[in-house]
């Protein structure tokens, strides 16, 4: 019931519906390197950096390509594929509602900072997210499920992690939020293993349009108990 002072959002699968392009990029790039019909489990892609994805590909396929070069190829293709991504339902409106309640806002993603900036512009909400709290996978030493990214976002506002609420769609992201000591809402519309990953979150919702009308008012003043809640 502690009031929420900041909301931190993952990007892919949480603010924009882009994860399908991740799977496509992996399939195409591995085929180019002589490994057709390859796929990774979502636990190795959702919430992960492209370098992590590249390293997993190399381990599982014995591919000779250097991990950093493979990560560059994956990101380049994914960026091309994801030019037409759509927001998760209600995402821009949720950001605006949270900002209207004077919550601090941040984005913590495995994608590079440049990708965060680009998608925030496309969503029309770039002005709401402090640049200090745009934490990309290219500026952290440890990616999710390590809590570093979320802790950096909290530090940007000199904020106690317990005062932050995280929105995530992946196991790695929910584990990172928990390790950071932050409450979390699991966005399920694009997620995998919804029953299992729900156990890692404080609450869950299908997408932002399923949140109660007074959600942001109530989390900001501490009158909404999120524990175990499901908004569908």
Verbal overview:
The protein has 232 residues and is α/β, with parallel strands linked by helices. It has two domains: 6-17 and 85-231, 3-Layer(aba) Sandwich (Rossmann fold), CATH 3.40.50; 19-84. It has helices at residues 19-32, 50-61, 67-81, 91-100, 113-123, 148-156, 171-180, 194-198, 215-221, and strands spanning 6-9, 104-108, 134-135, 164-168, 183-187, 203-205, 230-231. A seven-stranded parallel β-sheet has the order 3-2-1-4-5-6-7, sandwiched between helices. Strand 5 (183-187), helix 8 (194-198) and strand 6 form a beta-alpha-beta unit. Helix 1 (19-32) crosses helix 3 (67-81) and helix 2 crosses helix 3. It is globular.
Helices and strands, in order, run as EHHHHEHEHEHEHEHE
Q: What does the average pLDDT come to?
A: 95
| CATH topology-level name of the largest domain | Rossmann fold
Enumerate the spans where pLDDT stays under 50 for 5 or more consecutive residues.
none
> Helix count?
9
* Main pleated sheet: 7 strands, parallel
CATH architecture of the largest domain: 3-Layer(aba) Sandwich
The CATH homologous superfamily of the largest domain is named HAD superfamily/HAD-like
How many β-strand stretches?
A: 7
The shape, in one word, is globular
Helical percentage: 40-55%
Brief synopsis:
By secondary structure, the chain is α/β, with parallel strands linked by helices. The protein contains 9 helices and 7 strands; from the N terminus they run βααααβαβαβαβαβαβ.
